[in-house]
Amino acid sequence: MDKMLIFSGESNRKLSESISRALKIKLSNMDVSRFSDGEIRVQIKENVRGKDVFIIQPTCPPVNDNLMELLVILDAVRRASASRITAVIPYFGYARQDRKDQPRVPITAKLVANILTSAGANRILTLDLHAGQIQGFFDIPLDHLYAINVFLDYFKKRKMNDLVIVSPDVGGIKMARAYAKRFKAGLAIVDKRRNSPDSVDIMHILGEVKGKNVLLVDDIIATGSSLIEAAKALKRAGAKNIFAAITHGVLAANAVERVNNSLIDTLIITDSIPLGGDKKSKKIKVVSLGNLFAEAIKRIHFEKSISVLFDSIGR
């Protein structure tokens, strides 16, 4: 372990501290500041030559600042002659444009993959990518974790009965099926049609939810429109209690207010993105990824398999 160093960017210091506590290793010393014109300035304060370095930095909002900060840290560590550099990115930003679904649009997920590699990353560790194919955008090793077991532990403690796992759209069937298998629960799908990027029309429910506790599962909640409309449709179909387990709580614009006024009883998110004080709510519960990422980092360092840490989607 003396060959391993853990650095934290500024985007989610609390998660980095949770990971370091689980590893029983102090975060390594690094200065991150700004020049007078706003440019990011980084100085590594420890000897990293020949070390196995892990840089924890989710590229969450403000995405551009946090991504640029990660790139500058990667470059600094690479130029300081680290033996291997792993970028630990609990939330991978710019992932929603993963294909050309319209004329003259970019594939930003591939662009960011290229930039991270050029900046000096030798390996990527991330969680619940928006699309599985993003793993193939990297020409370096990528370890893809899933939050499913973290959510499973949360609900096991609450001993939920008559549970049905619900996908809020057809695209999330694969994830919902994996959750249903692990939770040993039923499966349902909300069939929807989107009017615009921020509003949807719910069509109907595929599956039996009447009199059941339902758990909506997805990777990202941004504005919350899909989840809120899905909750309305489920309640109309006779669902009892409605929960949502979402890995990445972006919670943009007035999403928290919309969740508070919705039919969702509890929204459970991970701490892959820090939940600011202005976004806290009695309806929103946060579960920690500290132990999951700590174990993954330890296994990568000692060249051990990490497959025991996750239940692969589609397995």
What does this structure look like?
Helices cover 29% and strands 27% of the residues. It has 315 residues and is of the alpha/beta class. The protein folds into two domains: 4-146 and 290-309, Rossmann fold (3-Layer(aba) Sandwich); 148-287, Rossmann fold (3-Layer(aba) Sandwich). The strands form three sheets. Strands 10-9-8-11-12-13-14 form a seven-stranded mixed beta sheet, sandwiched between helices. It has a five-stranded parallel beta sheet with strand order 1-4-5-6-7, with helices on both faces. Helix 1 crosses helix 8.
Topology:
Layout: E1 4-8, H1 13-23, E2 30-34, E3 40-44, E4 52-56, H2 63-79, E5 84-89, H3 108-119, E6 123-127, E7 142-145, H4 148-158, E8 163-167, H5 173-183, E9 186-196, E10 199-206, E11 213-221, H6 225-236, E12 242-249, H7 255-260, E13 266-270, E14 284-287, H8 290-301
Parallel strand pairs: 1-4, 4-5, 5-6, 6-7, 8-9, 8-11, 11-12, 12-13, 13-14
Antiparallel strand pairs: 2-3, 9-10
H-E string: EHEEEHEHEEHEHEEEHEHEEH
Question: What's the main sheet like?
Answer: 7 strands, mixed
CATH class of the largest domain: Alpha Beta
Number of helices: 8
Instruction: Give the name of the CATH architecture of the largest domain.
Output: 3-Layer(aba) Sandwich
Mean pLDDT: 92
Counting copies of identical and different chains, the oligomeric state is single chain
Helix content, binned percent: 25-40%
Main structural class:
alpha/beta
